[in-house]
Amino acid sequence: MTVLAAGTPTETAGAGDGPVGRVLGLLRRPGLWSAGMSVFDQAVVSGATFATSVLVGRFGGTEALGVYALAWSTLLFVRGIQQHLISSSYTVLCRQRTGRRLALFGGSSVVQFAALAVVVGLASLAVSYGSAFVGRGGTLGPVFAVLAVAGPAILLREFLRAYEFAHFRTPSALVIDVVVAAVQLSGLGLLAYAGRLDGPTALGSLGVACGAAAFVWWLRSADRIKIDRRLLWPHARRSWRFGRWALASQLIGSSALMLAPWVVAAVRDESETGLFAAGSTLVGLANVFVIGVCNYITPKMSEAFVDGGTGRLNQVVGKTVVLYLTTLCGFVVAAVTVGTWAAGAIYGEAFAAAGPVIGILAADMIVNAMSITFGTGLCAMRRPRANFGADVVAISVSLTATVGLTIPFGPTGAAAALLIGGTAEAATRGMIYRKVLREEAARERRAAGGS
To answer: What is the distance in angstroms between the CA of the first residue and the CA of the last residue of the chain?
Structure first.
C-alpha cells in the first residue's frame, strides 16, 4: 500500500522504532486511510451493481440480464465520455484555482454535465423508438425508454462522486454511494417480491436512488458551486482543449468494450449476452480494488507532478503498477479455478457456462489496470493527447479479434477479443508513457539549467 502514501513528510511522522512502531506509523498515514476509504467506497458501488446483476439474472433469467447488460454497456460508454471530457478536466484544472474562482469553475462543470445529460436523454428516446424498426422493440424499447430518464440521474451521481474525489473528500463521496445503495437495493427487493424485476425496472430503481443521493448532496454542498454565465463558454473551451484528446481516446478505446455485448446479441441472442454479462459482473468484483485505487491516484498523480515533477510522478506510477500486479494475479488464479462453480452458484445453473468468460476477463482486468495507470500518468503530465495512439491500437486489434472470435465462440470469443485488444493497448500505452516521461524530464532539466 506504499503507493498510496506517496505524499508529505507528515504521513510518516510518529512511527516508532521496531516492527510494531512501523506498523502503527503505517496505519496512521493519512494517505493510507484516504485510499482505504476510497476502496471501501468503491466496494459499496460495486456491491450494489453486483447485487443488481444477480437479482436480475435470478428473477428474470438470461434474456432479462442480457437486455439489462446492453443498456448498461451503453451507459458505461457515456459515463466514460463524461469522465474524460468533464470530470478529469475538472480534477486536473481545478488545481490552478481557489476560493471563488474554484466555485465558478465547478459551476461551469455542472452546466457542462447538464448539457450532456440532455443529449443522453434524447438519444435514449431515439433508440427506444428506433428499436421497433429493427425488430427489437419488445426487448430494447422499454429499457431504453427508462434509460432516457434514469440515465441522466445515474450520470449525475458519477459526476458528483468525481467532484468529491477531486478534492480528496472521500467521506462525502461515500455518503452519496451509501444513500444510492440503500435506496437501490430496497427498491430491487420490493420489485423482486412483487415479481416485477427485470431490466427496465432495475434501471428505474437505480435512477430513483441516484436522484435521491443527488438531492442529499445538494442540501449539504450546494454553496460550493457558483455559476456565472459569462464564464460558461471560456471554461467550456478550456475543458475542451484539455479533454478533447482524452475524449477521442475514450470514444475509440472503449468502443470494443461497449460493442462486445452488442456483437454477442447480434450474432447469437440476448440469452448468450446474459452469460457474457454474468461473467463481466463477477470479474467486475475486482473493480472494487482497481477503481477504488484509481479514484485516489488520479488526483494524487496530478498533485505529485505539480509538486515534484516527473520524478515524484514516476514513483507513484511505479508503485501503483506493483500494487495492481501483486493483488490481481491472485484474483486471476481464483477466477480460473472456481469461475464456473461461482457463476452457477450465484446466478443459477443456466449461467454455469460463463466459466471460461470469467477466467479470460479476469486476465483482462490486469492489463486494464496497467493501461489505466499509464494513461492517468499521461493526463497528470498534461499530455492526454498521447493516449490516443494506444486507443487506436486497442480498437483496431479488438474489433478484428471480435469479428473473428465471437461468431464461432460466442461470449468466450468476445472475452478473448477484449483480452487481446487490452494487452495491445496496455503495452502501447506503457511505451508512450515512458517516451513522454523522458521528454518531460528533459524539459525539466533544461528549465533548471536556465534558471
So the answer is: 37
